[in-house]
């Protein structure tokens, strides 16, 4: 009889314990499903925001790329112009140097032409004219 009481108590305890475990598993499963549903809703909202804003982002990116391309073309043109200006400046410097040399030569020649003539040495006076 004791065996029957102990065995019955064990069987009832195990059944109650299993039902409690089942309740806990079911509760955890329900909370997991609720969390999963919440994350899926957030994901849908994010996807809608991306779909709304992506065309504007793409358009502004394309416009920025066009501006960069135009700026690169302008910079390329400026580089060519700077090279041309440097070449012209070099040529002008060469011509200015030649003009300075020519002007220096001309000034020297003018100075020589305008310089008073060197006075002739005094002539010797005959003795008979050299009277006091």
Beta-strand share of residues: under 5%
Which structural category do the helix and sheet elements fall into? mainly alpha
The ordered string of helix (H) and strand (E) elements is H
End-to-end CA span: 189 Å
Q: Give Rg in angstroms.
A: 56 Å
- Provide a count of the helices: 1
How many strand elements? 0
Largest sheet properties: none
Runs with pLDDT <50, length 5+? Answer: none
User: Which percent bin holds the helix content?
Assistant: over 70%
Q: Tell me, briefly, the overall form.
A: rod-shaped
Mean pLDDT rating: 81
What would you say this structure looks like, in words?
- By secondary structure, this protein is mostly helical.
- Helix content is 86%, strand content 0%.
- The protein is built from one helix and no strands.
- The longest helix is centred in the middle third of the chain and has 113 residues, at 2-114.
- The model has no long low-confidence stretch (mean pLDDT 81).
């Amino acid at each position: 009889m004791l065996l029957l009481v102990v065995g019955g108590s064990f069987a009832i305890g195990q059944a109650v314990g299993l039902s409690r475990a089942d309740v806990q598993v079911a509760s955890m499963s329900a909370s997991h499903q609720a969390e999963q549903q919440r994350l899926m809703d957030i994901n849908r909202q994010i996807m809608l925001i991306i779909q709304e804003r992506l065309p504007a982002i793409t358009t502004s990116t394309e416009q920025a790329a066009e501006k960069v391309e135009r700026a690169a073309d302008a910079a390329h043109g400026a580089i060519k112009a700077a090279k041309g200006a440097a070449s012209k400046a070099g040529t002008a410097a060469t011509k200015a140097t030649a003009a300075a040399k020519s002007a220096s030569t001309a000034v020297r020649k003018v100075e020589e032409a305008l310089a008073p003539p060197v006075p002739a040495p005094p002539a010797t006076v005959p003795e008979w004219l050299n009277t006091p």
